[in-house]
Prior knowledge:
Elements: E1 5-14, H1 18-26, H2 28-31, E2 38-41, E3 48-52, E4 58-67, E5 71-76, E6 89-98, E7 101-112, H3 113-133
Amino acid sequence: xxxxxxxxxxxxxxxxxxxxxxxxxxxxxxxxxxxxxxxxxxxxxxxxxxxxxxxxxxxxxxxxxxxxxxxxxxxxxxxxxxxxxxxxxxxxxxxxxxxxxxxxxxxxxxxxxxxxxxxxxxxxxxxxxxxxxxxx
Length: 136
C-alpha cells in the first residue's frame, strides 16, 4: 500500500532584499540564526544540505537547484527516520522583490501524511523567526 504524500505551502513577506534573504538559505552562519544549531550547506546542485537541531535531530538532503537571489531547492528528510528519511521530500523556496522587501514562497512536497502536521508547525515557527532576523 502506497503512503499518501502531502504538500505544505507558506508565503511570508520579509523586510529585506531578495539577496539578503537568499543568504539565509545558503550561508551556514546565517542559516542557524533562524533555524537549527549547526548547518553544513554546499549550495550548488548535488551539494550537501544538513542541519542539526537543538535536540540532536539532523535534517539531511542535497541541493537540487540554486538560482542566486531567486530560488533554492533541496531535498529533505531526517537521519534515522523510518517515515521521512533523507531525500524523501523536497523544499522549494522562491524569492520575489516586492515593495518594502521580499515575498518568500516555500513549498514542501512529498511528505508522508504522518509528517505533515509537525512540518507545517515547524515551518510556521521558523519562517516567523526568519521574518524577524532577516531585515535590511
